[in-house]
Amino acid sequence: MSDNITINQVDLTAPTPQNTPLTHAPIAAGLSRPTVPDITEDNEGEEEEEDSPNAVQQAMLGLVQGKLSSLVGKSSGYIESLPAEVKKSVEALKGVQVKQVELQNQYKRECLELEKKYNELQKPLYERRHAIITGAAQPTPEEVEAGEKESAKDDSDYSPLSKEVVDSPAAPIPEFWLTALRNHVGLSEIITDRDAGALKHLIDIHLSYLPSTDSKLGFKLSFVFSPNEYFENDVLEKTYLYQEEIGYSGDFMYDRAIGTEIKWKEAKDLTKEFELKKQRNKNTNRTRVVRKARPTESFFNFFSPPEPPNEDAADEMDEVDLEELEEKLEVDYQIGEDIKEKIIPRAIDFFTGKALEYEDLDDDDDEFEDMDEDDDDDDRFEDEDSDSDADLPARRRGPPKGRGAAANNNVNPEECKQQ
């Protein structure tokens, strides 16, 4: 009779500083060299690639990542192994953090009240800006002088206005808001040539905050239009509502957005394309021409925001459809945030294009971050060797966070945002 052979069981407990020695980490035990299929003479070129040290390292990395993916979110057992007296201290720290979070939430709500206060203080300046844009008022010599100093500071080659121009009446600025919106990187991609005809009539954009007495906090963007051939509305509004609870990161979380129903004039709906089709009656053989509408890309879809699904509906949705919806929500929230935080307070910078200098800096930062990320080969091996999706932790399906989502990495997240 053969002797019994003891087989050592590999402990797949997630490593921590407490349970991982300096050598022989448990995830390395029991890993064998990945097998490579036989290569025929016809595939000599592929043989060199498979046997290269880089290919072997990538395969090993894929195996390790596959094992680790099944351990994500699982306890290492360290906390459970602590003495009861230590566990008592751990629970006490959680209680202390509860008080800390309450103060942080209070801080964020007070910051929101400060934003409301300073938005009201800026209203006379916004009204003055609107009057100059539309030609309802003439700029003062002091305003022109201050603007020229700013231009000279930004551009060493700036040529001051001639005395003749300074002494003559100023003219309205045509298509001011259309130009400002088109100079925003994100909005320029959704404003079509057809939209431009209607946006030429955009004469102002207002920001207002919902009263603190409302059931939900949030803000409203109001787009003011002059009479035009496209729709009956004088004002199109978009309201963003915050969730009641502050997010884990300490920021307000968007709940949903509500847009104005646009009253389009006959055959002027920019969110639809119309095509003429001939139809023949089978009985009488007569023909008729019908107009059929189909959805199309348009800036004015901004006022018909996607509706975030509830938890039950999200669970029933197809994964691809859910990801597409989340992406649409993310884009919608980001556009609203940028209009609120960038375009309204810095409208003249977007009109002149000065704001694009700062947008380019943000893009450069993203490019440098991408260079530091793992290459595509790592992702390929992870997908091939990782366990099934059922073993992976559930993906967060909450709506994207609102305030602070577009903040620069250099900004203190606890800093109160003031306009």
UniProtKB/TrEMBL annotation:
Residues 146-156 have a biased composition (Basic and acidic residues). Residues 39-52, 359-390 have a biased composition (Acidic residues). Residues 1-22 have a biased composition (Polar residues). It comes from Fibroporia radiculosa. Gene3D superfamilies: 1.20.5.1500, Nucleosome assembly protein (3.30.1120.90). It comes from the Eukaryota. Belongs to the nucleosome assembly protein (NAP) family. This is Nucleosome assembly protein.
